[in-house]
Amino acid sequence: MTRSGKVLYIIVCAAGAAVDVGRLVAYAQGEGWIVQIIATPSALDFIDVPELEQQTGRPVRSQYRKPHEPRPPRADAIIVAPATYNTINKFAQGIADTYALGLLAEAPGLGIPVVVLPFVNSAFASRAPFRQSVASLRAEGIPVLLGPGQFEPHPSGAGGDKLDTYPWALALKEIGQHRLR
Ligand SMILES: Cc1cc2nc3c(=O)[nH]c(=O)nc-3n(C[C@H](O)[C@H](O)[C@H](O)COP(=O)(O)O)c2cc1C
């Protein structure tokens, strides 16, 4: 399905897979999405900002605009990938202390579909707070692509081995199931 003219926000967090987020950008553009990259402040160290700005034709945003600056185009859909332990837990708790989390805090209430694709090791994934966060987001109708056939956590320190098989396209497929405004 083509999403011609629709705006996809890709929220990128500070996890190993962030280095490859350009792959998701390319897949999304191939489906007709206009892509806006939103980075958490920590993710800025993991991504090549100029390269992504060239690829998307839009500035990478990691902070709120100043009150006098124009509003960026509103998102029609949001993918959080790679989603960290930190951002998943904060999103589930309703914390909005970064621009990325502020967008996520509002999106469900605005009817904007959000899909979360984690990148966490098995130590993070085993923690009760994390499992509760995943359950809580799913209960709100927010898909978290964690589990068999989706993202499967790796042993601590082995994230580099997962980069080639990180299921970017699955997040795009999942967001494609939503009827957009
Ligand atoms: C080299 C490096 C790799 C990291 N990889 C991950 C990771 O794969 N998953 C994760 O949840 N956190 C990872 N972290 C920890 C996060 O970067 C850290 O929790 C950070 O506060 C997340 O911020 P954010 O959620 O705002 O992006 C990593 C940190 C470093 C320095």
Give a topology summary.
Layout: E1 7-12, H1 21-30, E2 34-39, H2 49-56, E3 77-83, H3 85-93, H4 99-110, E4 114-118, H5 122-125, H6 128-139, H7 168-176
Helix pairs in contact: 3-6
The protein binds flavin mononucleotide (FMN).
The site of flavin mononucleotide has 16 residues, from α3.
Summarize, please.
With 181 residues, the chain is of the alpha/beta class.
Order of helices and strands: EHEHEHHEHHH
Number of strands: 4
CATH fold description: Rossmann fold
Q: Gyration radius, to the nearest Å?
A: 15 Å
Under CATH, the homologous superfamily reads: Flavin prenyltransferase-like
* Strand residues, percent: 5-15%
Mean pLDDT: 95
Per CATH, which architecture?
Answer: 3-Layer(aba) Sandwich
> How do the strands of the widest beta sheet line up side by side?
2-1-3-4
Number of helices: 7
Keywords:
binds flavin mononucleotide, alpha/beta, 4 strands, Rossmann fold, 181 residues
Account of the 3D structure:
This protein has 181 residues and is α/β, with parallel strands linked by helices. It has a single domain (7-176), classed as Flavin prenyltransferase-like (Rossmann fold, 3-Layer(aba) Sandwich). Helix content is 35%, strand content 13%. The protein is built from seven helices and four strands. It has helices at 21-30, 49-56, 85-93, 99-110, 122-125, 128-139, 168-176, and strands at 7-12, 34-39, 77-83, 114-118. The chain has a four-stranded parallel sheet with strand order 2-1-3-4, sandwiched between helices. Helix 1 links the parallel strand 1 and strand 2. Helix 3 packs across helix 6. The longest helix has 12 residues, at 99-110. The radius of gyration is 15 Å and the shape is globular. The two termini are 15 Å apart. 39% of the residues are buried. The mean pLDDT is 95. Bound molecules: flavin mononucleotide. Flavin mononucleotide (FMN) binds next to helix 3.
